[in-house]
Amino acid sequence: MNRLRWLLHDSWVEAERHLRIIPRNVELLIFASIQPIMFLAIFVYVFGGSIVIPGFDNYDQFLMPGIFAQTLVFGSAFTGIGLADDLQKGLVDRLRSLPMSRSAVIVGRTISDLVRNLFTFVVMIVVALAIGFRFTGGAVDAIAATALLVLFSYALSWVQAVIGLSVSSVEAANSAGFIWMFPLTFVSSAFVDPSNMPGWLRPVADANPFTLVTNSARALYNGNPVGTDAWWALAWSIGIIVVFSTMAARRFSRSTAG
Amino acid sequence: MDGIVKTFGDTRALDGVDLAVPRGAVYGLLGPNGAGKTTSVRVLTTLLRPDAGTARIDGIDVAADPHAVRQRIGLTGQYAAVEERLTARENLGFVGRLFHLPRARVAARADELLERFDLADAADRVVKGFSGGMRRRLDIAMSLIAEPSVLFLDEPTTGLDPRSRLGMWDVIEELAADGTTVLLTTQYLEEADRLAEQIVVIDHGRVIAEGSPDELKQRIGGARLSVRIARPENQERAMSTLTPLCAGEVVSDDARTGFSAPIIAGDGVVPGVIRALDDAGVDVLDVEVRRPSLDDVFLVLTGRTTDAEEDAS
Ligand SMILES: Nc1ncnc2c1ncn2[C@@H]1O[C@H](COP(=O)(O)OP(=O)(O)O)[C@@H](O)[C@H]1O
Ligand SMILES: [Mg+2]
Description:
The complex is a heterodimer.
Chain A: H1 2-21, H2 26-47, H3 59-75, H4 77-88, H5 91-96, H6 102-131, H7 139-166, H8 170-179, H9 181-186, H10 202-207, H11 209-221, H12 229-254
Chain B: E1 2-8, E2 11-17, E3 26-30, H1 37-44, E4 52-54, E5 56-57, E6 60-61, H2 66-70, E7 73-76, H3 88-98, H4 103-116, H5 132-143, E8 150-154, H6 162-177, E9 181-186, H7 189-195, E10 198-203, E11 206-211, H8 213-219, E12 223-229, H9 235-242, E13 251-252, E14 258-263, H10 269-279, E15 284-290, H11 294-302, H12 306-312
Parallel strand pairs in B: 3-9, 3-10, 7-8, 8-9
Antiparallel strand pairs in B: 1-2, 1-4, 5-6, 10-11, 12-14, 12-15, 13-14
Helix pairs in contact in B: 3-4, 3-5, 5-6
The structure holds adenosine-5'-diphosphate (ADP) and magnesium ion.
């Protein structure tokens, strides 16, 4: 119990370090929100007219949950970049020489990134509603859908943490953090129906945890039956957190400023 | 630390280093780039586990109880580890809270340190705009927030402009005067000479010499005293006065007014010589002690100059 309080205290102090900075960097916040809004607009207005999805009389209702999911997933890259930056600047060395909980450095970072992602998410929902998106499921379903998306993004923050602690520079963390997100989010059901993909690619898209998460959120937002996808999505997120937090902790205690 | 060995792949960064710093002392760990200074500091501050040997801080084994060690140390690494996007005061608060000090205590201590390190005016400014010297001072202030029993300073003046370097020296001298135990690493002989009461010279992961700055200088032949007097007829009297004060033969020049002799270097030689000659009725024009520089020491100990080493890295 004592250890847990210690972890929570230190994580909060560390999260606060990052959270204090967010309102000071209005520029970053604006640009971080513009990018997903731009994606939203491009998909809705450029592709929207040409894409017909069976079962959806309106592409927006299909697409928006996919864009929400993608934006949250991309947001997880901040975690790796931030850790690599702390590492490069020697801040991680300082933190490791303090009598603080070791895990708190990463927990605090992932929590502050979660808060930042939530902010972007709220901005996006507002824009989506303005464009014409509607939650046709109930409020509880919408909250459950949001929780699934946010949890998956939080899980990927831990993957990014491992990447950020493994690479030797911020630039490398940036590339290594983003590169795999393109196949992860595009080879999925986020933007199109995977049954139109070539035969060899379809099973990949179907098995992609991002597909499971997107499908669950989409079903819940639209008031459709979810099936077992939601449970699988939940299991994936928890599994990723367990595996990658262990790896991150191990990496962290060995990491050096070079 | 005792027989510390640390290897990285094929590199033996530390090859059996022994080092003991008494409480309240300021020790200088002197060596060229790549000598193993940072690695030594990282072992002592629990950031690296040694492959062999033991290291203790206040009698606590670094490997066995790193947490207890961390509560007793302050580390200022080779690069100023400050959060650029927070203010100086917020940086201090951040570290203070991670030491689990009560908030009021952290706030009071932060004020005290900001004042002491000449950062009071900049306390509520974001660190991003700080000069290198200010960052370094904040970095040290952060290391001192919990009043550590040992402070580690890894190359505290590397990369600073000459004025900031002098400022940093004043800061370190003040710490020493307050009785903080300091282990300081440096590549600058002049810096170790000025700040440290005891110098440990390391090279290729081994301690190659240890002693006070004066002792080290004497190891390479000690200092020489040169005296010039006004009148040649006092030559005999000057010789007999100087001989008991010097460590070897006193030689005089052809003009019978210049003298030179080896001495045991130490403070108070010059006034002693002047007083003795004055008492003997000899008019003194000039007294000078030429001490070998620590550069000379390094050359003798390693067969290399430090400059060559820096060029190679
Ligand atoms: N993390 C590391 N990985 C590999 N080699 C290292 C590492 N850290 C230090 N070294 C090597 O160990 C030796 C000592 O380095 P260091 O302690 O940083 O020297 P100094 O601080 O005296 O300049 C050097 O040869 C350096 O290249
Ligand atoms: Mg070094």
